[in-house]
Write a structure and sequence with these properties.
Blueprint: H1 14-35, H2 41-62, H3 74-95, H4 103-108, H5 115-142, H6 153-177, H7 181-194, H8 210-217, H9 219-228, H10 238-269
Helix pairs in contact: 1-5, 2-3, 3-5, 3-6, 3-7, 5-6, 6-9, 6-10, 9-10
Length: 270
């Protein structure tokens, strides 16, 4: 019986060829990122650790917050939101250069161009997975309680992956036509960070306020609640999770429509 590894490229199914190419490009990204830097793996966790340290100093040491059961120990609350945010932020930032960075290679290959978007999602997702042991260490040493809701963690992964693929299919082709969009995305990411309940529980935002409406409609908020549910069950709100899931699917559909209608023009523009 012929195995996948033994099959020639022409004998593989389109999905198998896509999956194989996606994995090869992802491995190349990770190889370049980890073997060309002296610190390698450390760089993937250094940024969220530094951010967590700064926010811990500001909010706990200076402003003495983090004492409530909804966010104590605060360092675990921070990291459980900052690590998935790092995946989101890094992937969306790279989407703005997904096609321009290797334009010649993209034009000269026959593989679906969406693979250049999905390999960013996958490589950044693997980096996120590699950072989880750091969160586990802080959970152990801080004495944080682990609850059965940790079983919902894969739901957060699925929502974030779908959301990122949809955003990638939307952002990557549009940046080719609108160069200023790259800088606009960076500014929007900065605003979105503070409006996504990364530093605080969503329940702290007053109900009925304009900002609360934005929080409720932000697909990242329910997703972060799922990620934190294993340590802070009160931060899990299923209505927000449903909004996150629906918002991610809607963005995926919109992204695919934009990508499928613009990819030919993108290749001509590059």
């Amino acid at each position: 019986m012929t195995t996948y590894a033994d099959a020639r490229p022409a004998e593989r199914t389109p999905f198998a060829r896509y999956r194989h190419s996606l994995w090869l490009l992802t491995k190349r990204d990770l190889h370049v990122r980890y073997t060309t830097n002296v610190l390698g793996y450390v760089w993937s966790i250094l940024d969220p650790l530094l951010m967590a340290g700064i926010y811990y100093l500001v909010f706990v040491v200076v402003f003495h917050r983090g004492n409530s059961a909804n966010e104590s120990p605060y360092i675990v609350f921070l990291l459980s939101g900052l690590l998935p945010w790092t995946w989101f932020n890094g992937a969306v930032s790279d989407f703005t250069r997904a096609f321009s960075r290797e334009a010649k290679l993209i034009r000269s290959t026959a593989i679906p161009r969406s693979i250049w978007i999905n390999r960013i999602v996958l490589s950044k997702g693997i980096e996120f997975a590699l950072s989880l042991p750091v969160l586990a260490l802080f959970v152990i040493f801080s004495g944080a309680q682990v609850h059965w809701q940790l079983a919902f963690y894969p739901i957060g992964l699925a929502i974030e992956a779908v959301l990122l693929v949809g955003l990638g299919l939307l952002v990557a082709p549009l940046v080719v036509f609108f160069k200023d969009l790259e800088r606009a995305v960076k500014l929007l990411l900065r605003l979105l960070f503070y409006a996504s309940a990364v530093l605080y529980p969503a329940s702290e935002v007053p109900k009925g306020s304009l900002f609360r409406y934005f929080i409720d409609l932000n697909p990242l908020v329910g997703m972060f609640g799922v990620y934190r549910a294993g340590f802070f069950p009160d931060d899990l709100h299923w209505d927000l999770v449903l909004i996150s899931a629906l918002g991610s699917v809607i963005l995926l559909v919109i992204g695919w429509l934009v990508y499928s209608r613009t990819i030919r023009s993108v290749l001509k523009e590059m």
